[in-house]
Structure formats: C-alpha cells, structure tokens
C-alpha cells in the first residue's frame, strides 16, 4: 500500500515543513526501500489519530539533511522520532545524538545478514545516547511505542492503548474458542 494521501513526499534536500498539520511524530527512513517496513508504524499512528510526518533521511547519503532534521525536530514540535534503516544502520543513533527527543530505532532486514547487521548497529549504542530498539522489521511496535510515549502526557492515549490490548486479547481468545471446537 502507499503512504496516506495527505502525507507530502519531500525532496531529499528539504526539511519537511508540512505533512499532517502539527506532526508529533517524525517517521524517517534511510531509503524508500525501507518503506514497506516503516508503513506499519504510520498505520498505527493513523489508527490512534496521531499526526506525523514521513520522509527519507539518509545518514550516509544526505548527511546535511540528517543534521538539519535532527537539530530542528524538537523546535518543529515533534515529540518522538521513529527512525528505520538497514545495513550499517547509523540513522537512529545519529538522530539521537543531535536531539533530546526520544528516538525509536527500527532495524530493517536487507538482502544479506538477515537484518542482524542493522539490529546490532542500532541496539549497540554507546552510554549516553539511548535508542529504543524494536525487533527487526517491526514497524508496528515502533508505532505502538511512540503512542505509549505520547500517552505519558496525553491520557486519552493510555485509554486507547488499553483498548488496543483488550482487542488483542479478544482476538486470541476467539482463536482459543475455535480450537476448543475441534
Ligand atoms: C540503508 O541502506 C537504508 O536504510 C536501506 O535499508 C539500505 C539499502 O538502501 P537502498 O540501497 O535500497 O537505497 O541506508
């Protein structure tokens, strides 16, 4: 599927100025090839009606953009950054080095090494610069973690997460009942 229509596609050299109005979450990725992994994060934010922006920032191919994006993230109103990258996945850590916002890292599985390269790159941050790392290719959990982070200051999101957990429980219990019928 494609990104939400109201999300603007940004030129690689410009910092996003519009996406959803007043985005709270920045969803960034090292390449458009990461989009299938990162879209589920955006879908979660859609589900919880959280405004976000979605764009490409490459630590290696667009280093100036990385600095500009990271340094302006908080002052532009973002509260959380979700950053996905594969291979030598320096994007989340470098963003975390340049902003005080919480950064969630998504290791993206590439064509070799099964994504363990990206996982290790993202999770093994040096003392002082934390990145909250989710499982390989788990954009969904990145989105959910961002919702939980925002929930610390937005109580309606706590209730919404509780509702989400209840829906998971209901789904599993439905499967339990089906097995009992066998
Ligand atoms: C990383 O290199 C990106 O995050 C992507 O996962 C990987 C491959 O990028 P492409 O060559 O597909 O653009 O920086």
TrEMBL record:
Membrane-crossing residue ranges in chain numbering: none
Highest taxon, organism lineage: Eukaryota
Signal peptide stretch: none
Protein family: In the C-terminal section; belongs to the AIR carboxylase family. Class I subfamily.
Protein name as catalogued: Phosphoribosylaminoimidazole carboxylase
Species name: Neolentinus lepideus HHB14362 ss-1
Shown chain mapped onto the complete sequence: 384 to 565 of 574
């Amino acid at each position: 599927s494609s990104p939400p229509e109201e999300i603007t596609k940004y030129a690689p050299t410009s910092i996003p100025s519009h996406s959803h109005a007043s985005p709270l979450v920045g969803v960034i990725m090292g390449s458009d090839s990461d989009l299938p992994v990162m879209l589920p994060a955006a879908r979660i934010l859609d589900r919880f009606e959280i405004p976000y922006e979605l764009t490409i920032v490459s630590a290696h191919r667009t280093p100036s953009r990385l600095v500009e994006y990271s340094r302006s993230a908080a002052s532009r109103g973002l509260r959380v950054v979700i950053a996905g990258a594969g291979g030598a996945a320096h994007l989340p850590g470098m963003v975390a080095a340049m902003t005080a916002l919480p950064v969630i890292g998504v290791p993206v599985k590439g064509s070799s090494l099964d994504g363990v390269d990206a996982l290790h790159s993202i999770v093994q941050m040096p003392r002082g610069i934390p990145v909250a790392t989710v499982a390989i290719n788990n954009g969904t959990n990145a989105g959910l973690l961002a919702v939980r982070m925002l929930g610390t200051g937005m109580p309606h999101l706590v209730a919404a997460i509780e509702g989400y957990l209840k829906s998971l429980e209901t789904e599993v219990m439905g499967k339990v009942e089906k097995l009992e019928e066998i």
